[in-house]
Amino acid sequence: MFKNWEKAPKGERIDLADLLSQLKVTDEGLIPAIAQQQDTGEILMMAWMNRASIEETLATGQVCYWSRSRKTYWRKGESSGHRQKLKQMRVDCDGDTLLLLVDQQGPACHTNRRSCFFYMVDDKGATVESDPGSGL
Amino acid sequence: MFKNWEKAPKGERIDLADLLSQLKVTDEGLIPAIAQQQDTGEILMMAWMNRASIEETLATGQVCYWSRSRKTYWRKGESSGHRQKLKQMRVDCDGDTLLLLVDQQGPACHTNRRSCFFYMVDDKGATVESDPGSGL
């Protein structure tokens, strides 16, 4: 269906159940979700969602992922307080990636850096951009 | 090793071969790469890289992905002219996602929209944000 939908003009609507049923997910029913701070454009993290976590996130406005390591729902900030409020969800052209525009409270990274993408890579190696805890 | 590296202070260096050998890749040796327009912060697309395509991208400054559907290197813009010049590559805390800050020439999406993330999702469905071809 994404092959048909991509031809649609600006403003066309797609039903949520149709959209969710056509997402391209992994064998475990997961789709990657990029979290971007909505005002600064900073990329905070990437994690995974399943259909139920997408629906919960849309319903509550608080981002809920699926934790592949813990095999359970991961309501971002539930224990740390570093919650993500959803401002807008987007899907890409072929329906295999989500983009979450969020308001991130405090650091997004488990190292308490603001963003998870703190290694800057060049053709010789990588440089650590920020100190652990610097996002607090 | 990423578990050790994450404790490193700002400015610490990691050797490229060490970094690449520790990336968490899929069974096919792939890692997802988010492409972000470096000046506007717009998320353009997500695609996949393998070790050789990462090394080529760092060496040439032109982004080279691995196409999962065509099972070959995908030098972005080679046929369309819509090339991506690499400005900075980043890796996340657990080494399973890349972030590419790029200068995108023309549209990034195969629908000739500027970005692949043109479906805006809400709790009822999705709205197409832009017309096909609007990124030209």
Tell me, rounded to a whole number, the average pLDDT of chain A. 97
- Order of SSEs of chain A: HEHEEHEEEEEE
Low-pLDDT parts of chain A are none
Gyration radius from CA atoms of chain A, angstroms: 16 Å
Short recap of the structure:
Two copies of one chain form a homodimer. By secondary structure, chain A is of the alpha+beta class. Helices cover 15% and strands 35% of the residues of chain A.
3D structure, described in words:
The structure is a homodimer of 136-residue chains. Chain A contains 3 helices and 9 strands. Chain A has helices at residues 2-5, 16-22, 51-60, and strands at residues 13-15, 31-37, 43-49, 64-67, 72-75, 84-91, 98-104, 119-121, 125-128. In chain A, a hairpin with a 3-residue loop joins strand 8 and strand 9. Chain A has 136 residues and is of the alpha+beta class. The interface between A and B is large, with 57 and 57 residues.
Describe the secondary structure blueprint for this structure.
The structure is a homodimer of 136-residue chains.
Chain A: H1 2-5, E1 13-15, H2 16-22, E2 31-37, E3 43-49, H3 51-60, E4 64-67, E5 72-75, E6 84-91, E7 98-104, E8 119-121, E9 125-128
Give the key terms.
homodimer; 136 residues; alpha+beta; 4-stranded mixed beta sheet; two-stranded antiparallel ribbon; 3 helices; 9 strands
